[in-house]
Amino acid sequence: xxxxxxxxxxxxxxxxxxxxxxxxxxxxxxxxxxxxxxxxxxxxxxxxxxxxxxxxxxxxxxxxxxxxxxxxxxxxxxxxxxxxxxxxxxxxxxxxxxxxxxxxxxxxxxxxxxxxxxxxxxxxxxxxxxxxxxxxxxxxxxxxxxxxxxxxxxxxxxxxxxxxxxxxxxxxxxxxxxxxxxxxxxxxxxxxxxxxxxxxxxxxxxxxxxxxxxxxxxxxxxxxxxxxxxxxxxxxxxxxxxxxxxxxxxxxxxxxxxxxxxxxxxxxxxxxxxxxxxxxxxxxxxxxxxxxxxxxxxxxxxxxxxxx
Length: 308
Prior knowledge:
The protein is of the alpha/beta class and 308 residues long. It has helices at 2-11, 13-29, 35-47, 52-68, 78-89, 115-128, 143-156, 169-182, 199-216, 234-244, 265-273, 294-302; strands spanning 103-108, 133-138, 159-162, 187-192, 221-229, 251-255, 277-281, 289-291. The termini are close together.
């Protein structure tokens, strides 16, 4: 895990330069904690993609702590600000219940965000925990999707159910659910198509897949994870909103966090949509997807020594 922390810390360098440098300037540039100090902090957090809602909550918590602890110097607030951001991002332990139950996980998101690789990495993560995992290749439109997913399934050491290119994605899901029941699979992970330019059809397909799962495997724990590209900032937030209109999103996989200047979006998404970031990706290897840890993430963002 230490290796992952150092990769995360390195990946957040641009975000750190973007946000933390500005925050340090505020803490060092003000001699008292006043309205102007808070306004300046607010501007830096919003400009750093942390979002209006999250920024409001973070500063409200900070102001409360400043009063409670009778702080007078801006420099005394920094550790409280960091704690406030950690608190804002905390993911409840129950968020991962599906990992230990018989579950069906739908992985959704637009093309190009790292969806297929995230399916493979999540399968590897669950397999390492001793779970019996099956993958459904329900993105039947993109020629390379099934090929790519088969390669990831092989890397993770799990089985895959696929259909012919252009096949009805719902039929692949039906076959995969039947196979999951017959093989006593712990977790079935379904990769789905991500063509937002044909949004209406895509959303109808997602609904159809959900109906099939509801009918064929009503007792399975359901999880809908959306994959978002951390480099796209506010655009990622909009994608989550659009998909959230069709599927009840239960969590976020945030990818491409190695090298983005918009890492603050992790805070914004969680706050604005009230959907937890459950996994975070910082590279291309099988173990480059890990459970999201707010302590670790904020420590890496602010270059604080010590890991969770």
